[in-house]
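Hi all, posting the design record for the shared folder.

TITLE: backbone redesign
STEP: 1 of 1
STRUCTURE INPUT:
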């Protein structure tokens, strides 16, 4: 039976912030699904053990019935599939689904053209791209000394960076890879180190085990910047 304390755990009663509560809820759902799957596998394993025991006891081959479908059942499922496909709303055209991040105008060299050329607008070409790069920042904190007070004053890092060695976007990116895309921790480590980031396997493990203050969303992951080139539409 699933642990009672885990079943009784309610994120709403734990006074968590909305983002942390959402992540805890998702983790609990994952744990419950894994638990149910484990119980089903145990039952299946026991059934197979019983059948093997029967075979070894020379009691005849176990009667394992094949999962057969009748003709009417297959026809019904086929009709249901067609109905589901017909009810789907059509996708908008491909060009409308592309998010444009920036525009770039490519102009002709007038010096190489006849003098009487007249502007006739633009032909648009969309190029989808994505850039994955680091954003490591060296912060130089100014220091000022006052001879009158005998004190040294130093500028402060932004609040979210104090006591940190890695930005929240990097942490969110790693958490998203692990929980949403199921990328193993060793692969995440290899990916980050391939970008010349100095990070250890222990740091990756700590992020996955203890840092649930970040919502793992690809929208906040640093380094993933879509770059789309488009020529301006006709004026």
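Okay, here is what came back for every position:
SEQUENCE:
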């Amino acid at each position: 039976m699933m642990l009672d304390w885990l079943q009784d755990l309610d994120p709403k009663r734990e006074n968590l912030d909305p983002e942390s509560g959402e992540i805890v809820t998702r983790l609990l759902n994952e744990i419950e699904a894994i638990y149910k799957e484990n119980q089903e596998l145990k039952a299946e394993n026991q059934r197979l053990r019983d059948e093997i025991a029967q075979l070894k006891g020379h009691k005849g081959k176990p009667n394992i019935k094949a999962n057969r479908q009748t003709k009417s059942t297959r026809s019904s499922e086929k009709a249901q599939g067609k109905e589901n496909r017909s009810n789907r709303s059509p996708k908008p055209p491909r060009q409308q689904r592309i998010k444009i991040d920036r525009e770039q105008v490519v102009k002709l060299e007038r010096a190489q053209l006849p003098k009487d050329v007249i502007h006739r607008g633009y032909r648009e070409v969309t190029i989808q791209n994505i850039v994955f790069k680091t954003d490591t920042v060296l912060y130089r904190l100014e220091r000022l000394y006052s001879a009158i007070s005998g004190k040294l004053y130093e500028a402060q890092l932004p609040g979210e960076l104090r006591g940190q060695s890695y930005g929240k976007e990097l942490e969110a990116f790693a958490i998203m890879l692990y929980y949403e895309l199921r990328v193993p921790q060793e692969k995440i480590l290899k990916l980050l180190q391939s970008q010349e980031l100095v990070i250890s396997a222990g740091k990756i493990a700590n992020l996955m085990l203890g840092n649930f203050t970040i919502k793992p969303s690809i929208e906040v992951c640093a380094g993933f910047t879509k770059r789309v080139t488009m020529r301006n539409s006709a004026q």
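COMMENT: Residues 212-235 have pLDDT under 50 and may be disordered.
Let me know if anyone wants the other runs.
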